[in-house]
Fold this sequence. Notes:
By secondary structure, chain B is mainly α. In chain B, 71% of the residues lie in helices and 0% in strands.
Amino acid sequence: MLKYLTKRFFLMFPTLLGVAIVTFFLIRVIPGDVVELRMGGESGAVSQEMLAKERARFGLDQPLWKQFVVWVGGVARLDFGRSMWTGAPIWEEIKLRLSLSLQVAIMATVVAVLLAIPLGVLAALKQDTWVDYAVRIFSIAGLATPSFWLGIVFILMLLIVFKWLPPMVYTPFWQNPWQNMQQLIWPALAVGYRYSAVATRMTRSAMLEVLREDYIRTARAKGLVQKLILSRHALKNAMLPVMTVVALEFAFLIGGLVVTEQVFNLNGLGLLFVQAVAHRDYTLIQALVMLVSGCFIVVNFVMDIMYAYLDPRIRYR
Amino acid sequence: MALARPLETVEAPPAQSGWLATSVEFCRRRPLGAVGAAIIVVMFVVALAAPVLAPYDPQLVDFAAMLARPSPAHWLGTDSFGRDVLSRLIYGSRTALIVGFVSAFVGATLGAVLGVGSAYFGGRVDLYMQRLMDIFISFPLIILALALVAILGNSIPNLITAITVPMIPRCALVIRSSALSIREMPYVDAARAAGFGHSRIILRHMLPNVMAPYLIMVTAFLGQAILLEASLSFLGLGVQEPLPAWGLMLRGAAVEFAEAAPWMAIFPGVAISLSVFAFNLFGDSLRDALDPRLRTQ
Amino acid sequence: MQRRSGLVLTLIAAIVLAASLPATAQETPRRGGELTFVVPSQPPTYDGHQEETFGLIHPVAPHYNTLLRVDPTDKTGTKPVGDLAESWTISKDGLVYTFKLRHGVKFHDGSDMTSKDVKASYDKIMKPPAGVKSLRAVAYQTVTSVEAPDPHTVVFKLKWPESSFLLNLASPWNFIYKADIIAKDPKWYETNVMGTGPFTFVEHVKGSHWVGKKNPNYWDKGKPYLDGYRAIFISASAAQVAAIRGERAHIQFRGFSPPERDQLVQALGNKITVQESPWDCLNFVSFHHEKKPFDDKRVRRALSLALDRYAGAAALSKITIVKEVGGVQVPGTPYATPPAELEKLAGYGKDINKNRAEAKRLLKEAGVPDGFSFTFKNRGIPHPYEPVGIWLIDQWRQIGLNVKQEFIEASAYHPMLKRGDFEVAMDFQCGFIVEPDLDLVRFVSTSDANYGRHKDAVIDDLYSRQARATDIEERKKVIRQLEKRLLDDEAHVAYTIQWNRIIPHSSKVKGWTITPSHYLNNQLDSVWLAE
């Protein structure tokens, strides 16, 4: 197992490097120049030499491969550089937004799991009955509704029906848990409902698969109470693929909630990303993408560990 | 203790009487999937017959009738330019289907080709391909799409590209794991031993067997593509005015007039949800039907 | 007896006095309270000399004073009044401006503000040190020097007289900084705040909010009325409206669209006060003069004639932030052409059928076939670019043209214009103050902002004549001639409809008057909150 895990561990790095390369070159292909945007803006009246000086300051006049090496070197030391738009250190730009996005992601995942597992198990047990249909319709509806539409409807409903609006400014959980919850519960519900769809489907099919295994049949034949069978055997083995799905979706929630954040006015990473792209803020974009992808890759690896531990076929290699 | 359903249900495989019988069987056994399929068919008919069905030109600006509520003249009301919502919805289905289908099919097919190739050739090819796919998968869908639209510019073909590209690696990985299991089959070895060429083996043995996951991926992507197009249009990066597209109809004015003229936002939202819903329902049932492990009980 | 009549007399006097007071008593400003406002955009840095986004002005301007400012009580936003300058004199030849500064002005750290601070700030604006950028240096080309002969006098010496010079100095961006700080580190002000303004800096949480507190030692005794302010950054406009509707914010200083205003009025009734004003901003259609067939002035005239501006204004004013039909100056301002005269220009006549027939005839004469297709490039911003774009396309359809619209993302838009990568594109004329020198300079042939690349010596001549005109009537005449040449004779560009600024705000907010510019009147010194 150790050999398998070390191999997986070392494979993370080339993937991260690959992401770094793709990001670096991809964003430089986007037309538009951050220096010109900052300096020229709407009036566009800036001298060429001023532009050249600013470019040199950001190292943009160096050959591309050199810029890349400098940047990667910084990332290895966990120094992401400074934002090209504000000049502030990247970490400063990111840290508040990260804690918000992280919290929404965690809360949404909790909502998703709380919905998915009971519903999925229920649907599997009562396969092809109206209960199964109802669950499937409910969960697919979550998948089908555009998140921004849902968000708009949410806010309007709160305003018109309850005449109440969630707090506009983010207070971290440790500062004021009640206000924090008031703001974040709504996007967490909207997003969680959406993501529960995939997890519900996964749970259902995993349960179905496991229910047909021989050892379950044996257990039933032995006359054990169905509930006991479920809890001990079926659920445990069904959990593996479900956990994988949940973990992967969680990794995506960190930076992928672009539209939801706009609608609920959350000062999160998705919004920061959109603004960074609009400003052509290379360093910030690179940092954000590395963060999100890095998250995903690490989560993948953690899943590998869990699989290795739980799946005897791998464990005893 | 009563069980939800009998433990063993022996099923005679359906007679080899072709498409019609299989479809009917499918509809009977999987009513949800049938509903999904029905909605999809309706969508197709509407899209094809748009010029006939739409009462007005979707781009016809009529300030005299702006923000009109649903009435016999305008069944679903008009938007802030006096354009008929129903007509825009009907023509919008064309955009949704074109973008959805092209993205899903191209994405899934390219993904399948890469996946099968990767599984078949194995070794170094497989290793590099996997790493490459891993890299692209770790970008969230919308981020990659955003970047691509920013690079390529705003137009429908570019939008399709931006939606297709993120889907390729996801499909590749799924098809690859399916193809891997086939590669281990004895008849593949036999074919190799008999000296059959690569392409023949791939085409005749491997591809038909990855049809099931391929079809499932296509239906899954269809729904996602439509949603992604709606999200990008909502952000202003997708289809541009004055073309009719569902996501575009939800942007800007629809939100501002959400209380004064709710029909502007409700109907496109319903259209999007319904179509994605239909594709997912159908795909879900398709997966149930095609997954051999679930079929034999 | 004597005492009693004395009392009666006093009473009568008092009654007479009370009766002679004005019928509408001035509301007395109430002190206290924190003003909460929403800002759609964020400041990249804190240095007003380097930025041009309202995202900086709205949260940061209250911390600073400028030498002159635009009179915040004047609805046209065209009158310069003293801020740090108490009075000034202009020499007969218009080449020397002498300003007397107020006494007793202190920076927030307690040090005194003197003329050397004004000099240092303007030196930084006009001749920025290496590595520091100044966006407005080009506006001060006529200045040879700024001198500070004594601690409360500042003298500007000009190369040539400029009638708009005072307005230039009233720019809301020309924050007066501390000379010592600039000398030590000219980039300090990019990330720090130290001014003389009515509010001191408390905190800025990136992406979230900005807080300012009342300056107890403000030179304008009695002001500010507020205890402080809080600026909240919200980018999505639906969320901004929700904030005001949910009474979590009092005001947003940029502007809302008509349906948003209607929503707020309907929801909050008389808890909302709406102030509206023509906006010093306008979209116009720019034709690339080096690309066929737009090099032919008949084609350009046709495209302008096709637009039913009056009907369009009436309809569009319901859905987006445009309202009045205007020429080269904001309607209602000193140099604007009156509507009756405006109607004489091509495209501004009221008989649209006649105009369109004429347009079709011109197109035919120029050899443009029916159903001719071209691409109109537009900026990817919801208001009012998108609705006006849709309207334009529809209007051009009416003369048989098949126009495709392509939206370019805001950040890529200017580079596209500069490269000349367009046939017909949407451009805008926006300013912080309504002044022909600033508004019209872009139409000079050699201007960097002349994206349509027209070369018209007549316009160049007319521009410099109006810039040097000392008599107001004379200047108006020249400006009218320029307008006619620009929009009618040569149709270099086609103006659409003047933007309309709509500010629905909580009725509790008093002491703030709307002006045509969202960069003006943001010091918040005279704003107060009613109960």
